[in-house]
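Re: How this chain folds, sequence and tokenised backbone to follow
Notation: Tokens come from a learned vocabulary of local backbone shapes, not from coordinates.
Start of record: The labelled sequence and token lines come straight after this line.
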Amino acid sequence: MSLLKYRIDISSLSDGEKSNLIDRIDKRSFNGSFMIPGQDFIDFLIDEKVNVSVLDIPASCRLTRLYQ
């Protein structure tokens, strides 16, 4: 199994939207979500076979793959 690391900028989301997205990431990612202290970013690892579209990430969020 290979894991991909992603970062999401969630600064444009309301508190409720952030909470919902974090819940989806926690359920589908390898080790849950990791909030970067003092910033509006979430890092997570996901199996390369899982399409990140299943996370239903809002269009206003910037998704970046950090490494494979």
About this structure: Strands lie at 3-9, 33-35, 41-47, 62-67. Residues 31 and 45 are 7 Å apart (CA to CA). The radius of gyration is 11 Å. The chain has a mean pLDDT of 92.
